[in-house]
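Friendly challenge for the regulars: who can give me the structure tokens for this chain first? No prize, just bragging rights.
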Amino acid sequence: MNSKIKDDNTDFLFDAILQLQSKEECYQFFEDLCTVSEIKALSQRIVVAKMLSDKRVYSDIVAATGASTATISRVNRSLIYGCDGYDMVFSRMEQEKK
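First reply, four minutes later:
Bragging rights claimed.
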């Protein structure tokens, strides 16, 4: 866990997110919480992470997502050196498909 982000405010945010029970509730909550640009940036990053996890090359990712190479590099660093959050979520998503 990254101690740089751990505090009472972040705990409160994550507790709130854990209360969401459907995709529709996620849309309602995140549209209230974030700007459209923030939601688009977050969604772009997770798609980039999934494509990198699937061993897609940068040029394909740029074409599919419009993400800059700087964003792709930053997400790639998180995949390599991060807390394995992306891998955890992608694994659970795969399990849910089965």
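Residues 65 and 84 are 22 Å apart (CA to CA). Helices lie at 8-17, 23-33, 36-53, 58-65, 69-81, 85-97. Your move, everyone else.
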